[in-house]
Amino acid sequence: MGNSGRYLLILIASLALSPPGVAECRSNPVYTLSGRFDEQGSSMEVTASIRLGPDDDASITRLSIPAAEDMVVHEVLDAGGGELSWALSPEGTILSLTDNDRSDRISSIHLRYTLPVTLDEKLGYYQLCEPTGQRWFPKPMTEEGKPYPWGDYRVTLDFPEDMGLLTSGGYQVPDRDDGRSQTTYSVQWVQDFGIVAAEGFVVEVFDDGALPVHAFYQQEYREEFTLVVRRTQEAISWYLNTYGFFPQTHMGVIQGHPQWGGGFPLTNMFMVHLANLSDDFLSFITAHELGHYYWGLHVLSDSDLYLDWLMLANGIWIDQLYLSQRNERTLPQQWRASGNGDWFLDYFKALVSNYDQRLDLTDEEVLEIGLDYDYNSLIRHGKGATGVLLQSQIIGTEAFLAMQKRILAEFTHSPLSVSEFVDRLMAAGAEDAAEFFAVWRRSDARLDAVIDLVEPAAAGGCNLVVRRTGNVPYPIDGIVDLGAAGIREFRLEADASIDTLHLAVMPASFGLDPDGILPISGSMHSDQRALWLTALYRQKRDDLFIPLAQAHLKHNENQGLISYYLARRLYWLGRYEEVTALLDGNRAIPGIRDQYHCLATIYTARALNKLGRQHAASDLLDTIAGDALRNDLESFYKRIRLEITSPPSR
User: Fold this and answer.
1) What is d(CA 641, CA 95) in angstroms, rounded to the nearest whole number?
2) Residues near 129 by beta carbon (within 8 Å), at least 6 away in sequence
3) Is the separation of the CB atoms in 28 and 51 below 8 Å?
4) Phi, psi dihedral angles at 622 (to 5 degrees)
5) Model confidence, pTM
6) Low pLDDT (below 70) residues in the chain
7) Per-position DSSP letters for 419-456, written without gaps between them
8) Fewest beta carbons less than 10 Å away: which of 118, 260, 290, 483?
9) Is 92 left (phi over 0), alpha (psi -120 to 50) or beta?
10) Which residues are bridge partners to 468 per DSSP?
11) Three-state helix/strand/coil letters over 205-217
């Protein structure tokens, strides 16, 4: 899932029905579950019958059960109704069968228990689902000590009539009697069966798209979640058209956390948090969450993680392709755009902070090492996706999409290893992919180069020497402006560390990455440079940010964001003269082209005021009055206007 809050929801995805032909050749547990909420909504009475598939020779000896201090197990029976001996682990999460003298395997088990449930105060509803909430039913464990990953479910729920309820089985119209509601769901080949439920929430069914979408929300958010559904339907239709199938038969969207932005995928339904419900962001987050249902639990991670970096990267690649077509941008333009994932920015933030950037760390290793930053967002998402994007640029968008479609067809419900993925990239034309990812997965991976201008003593002209300063084998393009002689393009190949260009005349200018393809500090593309500067600003690297931003603004127009960042940082550092110098040296201040230019101008006016130049400050504020002020900016503007025009305190 943003910044860390944005993407808190991105850790795990789940899959619903298998494509035709898969169900016949599998063996997985069959769950028959019944849950009854009490009148106060404080507990559930649960009966759970679990049967291992006929092709599974294992016996049920242990079950992973919900972790709850006040859970009461009433009975544990075998298929014939005979009582089984059992014991709970000290943590109360594992039920083990003990001292049962049987010659046949225990292939079926029946439990009855009472489970306390807790209303999430922030969300306002019960989350009885993994991984965000409390699981409400037991799962048999394999001989390796892990719960079976898949199951078929038949679930009957009984709940108060005024309770809104959505499940992984979608929405079913309940039977109502004497103030209670009851409904039954059947769903196959899923990892979990989750429930969200509470008084004051409604469930609305939208079945006017490619497949039904069910929305769970409070009434005051109806307009916003109607838009969430519409953007979800648009993305589903695009995925269907692009990939040729969708892994689910229905989808749910759930009202999320009021203070977070982003989303989180669950089995057959995903959350959308409330901090950012702008139309552009909803187009991004709905497409992003839906991508997990292809890459994560249709094609599986080749690790203990539900969503390892390779699954995240492929999902991000396809959601960015969707957004690029929706926004009528090229794929590189989409990656450089802000507010739609910001994956380059996340990668840059990890670089400038010199964080541990190993791609293959597990959640346990992250906790053990004690990493105090958002490893999941910056590394698994940002760096992982950036590496896959770079390799896709080698073979081209259409070829990479075709490769993804082949993987989706061949790895249904099967894990995809990095080595297999790399082999397919190499077969598609990315011949350096193996060496690239061998380095890219390391913490010391660096992708950059520099250009030195060398004037020979004789023969006129000059030499341009391009040197790789990073260790990642990847081609780096550049251009040289030779004035009347035109533009010359060059490339430092992936297997080269240095190259020399012999030029007949002195160049007017030269630079690397003119098309903004590469996330490198030395890119000459203004948008890529702005992302690098933003990362320096966000990570408080003022030693680099301030001089580089000042140089950047002298040569790049319409850089409102960098103007704002620089003016704000200098102002709060008390460097007022340098803020006001932006008026003379920067074509981007003042200006009313967008909110960032307005904010830059406001901070410049504040600096003028601090220097005792109140009239100049007031005149500068006048340049951004009127239509340029929007939303919260208007109240900020009025406060600063009052600050400048009020007499100084004595």
Assistant:
1) 67
2) 135, 168, 192, 193, 194, 195, 196, 266, 267
3) no
4) -60, -25
5) 0.90
6) 1-27, 55-56, 457-459, 557-558, 584-593, 625-628, 630-631, 647-650
7) HHHHHHHHHTT-TTHHHHHHHHTSTT----EEEEEE--
8) 483
9) left
10) 449
11) EECCCCCCEEEEE
